[in-house]
Write a structure and sequence with these properties.
It is built from ten helices and no strands. It is an all-alpha fold. The protein binds protoporphyrin IX containing FE. Protoporphyrin IX containing FE (HEM) binds next to helix 2, helix 4, helix 6 and helix 9.
């Protein structure tokens, strides 16, 4: 992809990632946040956290399935936006729901499993956001950085569990998200298995025979 193409793609992604905040701001300004505004805002931000998280997890499966390389340009941006939405989602809970009642919040985190896993997901996102720069990749080294960033799978599972635990039984939405996560992780797992089998076969086949020199080649 050309430099211009990358810039245009990122500009579209920035606009798309900021749009939900714009819509929320508009709804707040026009008094359209439903009868329970705190719950509405929390849910809105939680929904977009999960969507962006799953979008960032979709980058590698898209490359595996369709050999698309262009989504890789967006992975960091999607991950950082997911983290920003998660932080806002948490801040609404911290400020509007509990108004810094630390003891009450501590009890919530311990007693309510959906808060425990939500909090786990948010805390695990911090080292990933902190090491998302090219400088951090150089400092950590590629292999260690990749290991650390596998935490994104755990975060995805925690995010979906959080929603499954808090939603009413009749609400099918968390099951849709869970299905998307299973498909995305399944594609990665299948690809990993395929590459393992291939490498085992290559090792079992031994070194390939050296091609015999062509006429006029070599000594
Ligand atoms: C990666 C982290 C997180 C994700 C992906 C996430 C996602 C979600 C989702 C999808 C919802 C439901 C939205 C709906 O019903 O439409 C939700 C609701 C909620 N989340 Fe999170 N969340 C995360 C972290 C947290 C954290 C850290 C807290 C607080 C400690 C939290 C507290 C809540 C609460 C209280 C609700 C229910 C709001 C209500 O029904 O009034 N979440 N979250």
């Amino acid at each position: 992809m050309t430099r211009r193409g990358r810039v245009a793609l990122k500009a579209v992604a920035w606009a798309a990632c900021l749009a939900p905040l714009g819509v929320l701001g508009y709804r707040a300004a026009t008094g359209d946040l439903t009868a329970n505004p705190i719950s509405f805002v929390t849910n809105w931000l939680g929904d977009w956290t999960l969507r962006l998280l799953l979008a960032s997890l979709a980058v590698t499966p898209l490359r595996i399935l369709f050999r698309w390389a262009w989504p890789i340009t967006l992975r960091r941006l999607l991950g950082l936006f997911a983290f920003s939405y998660a932080t806002l989602h948490f801040c609404v809970w911290l400020v509007l729901d509990h108004f810094f009642a630390w003891r009450q919040m501590g009890a919530d985190i311990v007693k309510r499993p959906y808060i425990t896993v939500g909090m786990t997901a948010l805390v695990l996102m911090i080292p990933l956001a902190a090491t998302s720069t090219a400088w951090a990749i150089r400092r950590l080294g590629g292999a260690r950085w990749q290991w650390l960033h596998r935490l994104v799978y755990v975060i995805g599972v925690c995010g979906v569990l959080h929603y499954l635990w808090l939603a009413k039984k009749a609400n099918p939405a968390p099951y849709y998200y869970a299905a998307v996560l299973v498909v995305l992780l399944g594609i990665r797992a299948a690809d990993w298995l395929r590459r393992r089998v291939l490498s085992v076969r290559v090792v079992a086949a031994g070194p390939s025979p050296r091609p015999s020199p062509q006429r006029g080649e070599g000594a």
